[in-house]
Amino acid sequence: MGKYMHSLKSLRDIALEYARVEHPDLASMARELGRVVHGDTTALSARLAAVHRRGIDTRVLIERRQPALRVLVRAWPPGQRMPLLDHTDCWGLELALHGALEWQAYRRDPHSGELDAQGRNWLGPGDANWFERDASYAHRCRNLSRHDTAYTLHVYGGELPDRRDSESRANAPAWLVQAQRSQFAGTLAH
């Protein structure tokens, strides 16, 4: 447990260090956080799984008002997805600790409100995506595994609304799911 606690403390301390300024260098923060995750992947993954088995899906590592900062660890059950998030007045960074996530980014047209897909990334342990304060930006994530729980670290700064856009919005694009097919490329040997 000590190594796990040390890793979470290190992740929290890195977020605190970079979040001292209004516009932190999110690329450098991601690099430092990723270094900790890569250095301690096995112990961190095992301990996070043990915490999740006790029914804890989200653990807040720190939340402060001045300057506003929230750092938390979240468990993503197999196949779970989050609704479209609109972080108008904050910046954020999301880092995979264990498992794999798909991250989709969107821009909202300021006049029509319609969403335009901007890209898609896949995050594995130590990989991160981030965003600056931007009223037109929205994103969502999902756990790519059908069997394993994924864990992520979230660092948010600035005004931290609890507001979420509904997944049922007419202009929110659906997740694209494609059937997988297996096929043999030759004979099977015993």
3D architecture notes:
The longest helix has 17 residues, at 2-18. Helix 1 (2-18) runs antiparallel to helix 2 (26-39). The protein has a single domain, classed as Sandwich (Jelly Rolls), CATH 2.60.120.10. It has 190 residues and is α+β, with helices and mostly antiparallel strands. It has 3 helices and 8 strands, in the order αααββββββββ. Mean pLDDT is 78; it is low at 163-190. The chain is globular, with a radius of gyration of 18 Å.
Q: What key attributes describe this structure?
A:
globular, Jelly Rolls, five-stranded antiparallel sheet, three-stranded antiparallel sheet, alpha+beta, 190 residues
Order of strands side by side in the largest beta sheet? 1-2-8-3-6
> How much strand?
25-35%
What is the residue-averaged pLDDT? 78
CATH class: Mainly Beta
Q: Please name the fourth-level CATH homologous superfamily.
A: Jelly Rolls
Number of domains: 1
Succession of helices and strands: HHHEEEEEEEE
Tell me the CATH architecture: Sandwich
From the N-terminal CA to the C-terminal CA, the straight-line distance is 43 Å
Number of strands: 8
CATH topology: Jelly Rolls
Helix/strand class: alpha+beta
Helical stretch tally: 3
Low-confidence stretches: 163-190
Shape: globular
Largest sheet: 5 strands, antiparallel
As a whole number of angstroms, the C-alpha radius of gyration is 18 Å
What is the helix fraction of residues, given as a range?
Answer: 10-25%
